[in-house]
Specification:
With 159 residues, the protein is mainly β. Helices cover 0% and strands 41% of the residues. The radius of gyration is 27 Å and the shape is rod-shaped.
Length: 159
């Protein structure tokens, strides 16, 4: 029976720690033998769910026990990207430095914060996205949020 170890695949038994001498189970045993398990580390596919945005690449391979490494930055008009998380809402944030501890394929979800986006009719007659900025008391420009009264009588962010 092969041994198991999270994040690894059993390769073979050897008689040396370095794994260069495979053990021959058909050989005659004259003295006690110490066997060493040899392993290969598993890799898993991580899929990125941009949650209404777009992302390239849509997936990548990660290695168990290693950091996730470079993660793509999705885009979504009118929103600020807050990071990749293990759940669509809530969950744990995953960064480039986070060490891979999952032992199966995984989906990471983009979390967003709405920014003020308005639709402005351009000279071409089409609607274009625009960001509302407001000059704050500190003299700096800050992203503002637009609330519009909807047909239901309630205020909605960005209409």
């Amino acid at each position: 029976v092969a041994p198991t170890k999270d994040g690894f695949k059993f390769v073979r038994w050897t008689t040396d720690v370095a794994g260069t001498q495979p053990y021959d189970f058909n050989s005659e045993v004259i003295a006690p033998v110490t066997l060493y398990a040899q392993w290969t580390v598993n890799t898993y596919v991580v899929t990125f769910d941009a949650q209404g945005g777009s992302v390239t690449p849509a997936s990548k391979s990660v290695t168990y026990g290693q950091p996730y490494g470079s993660l793509p930055v999705p885009v979504r008009a009118g929103y600020r990207f807050d990071g990749w998380f293990t759940a669509a809402t809530g969950g744990t944030q995953v960064t480039a430095e986070t060490v891979v501890t999952v032992t199966a394929a995984q989906t990471l979800y983009a979390h967003w914060t709405v920014q003020s986006i308005v639709h402005v009719k351009g000279a071409d007659g089409a609607l274009h996205d625009g960001i509302v900025t407001v000059k704050g008391a500190d003299g700096a420009m800050h992203v503002g949020i637009v609330y519009v009264k909807g047909p239901d009588g309630n205020l909605h962010v960005n209409g």
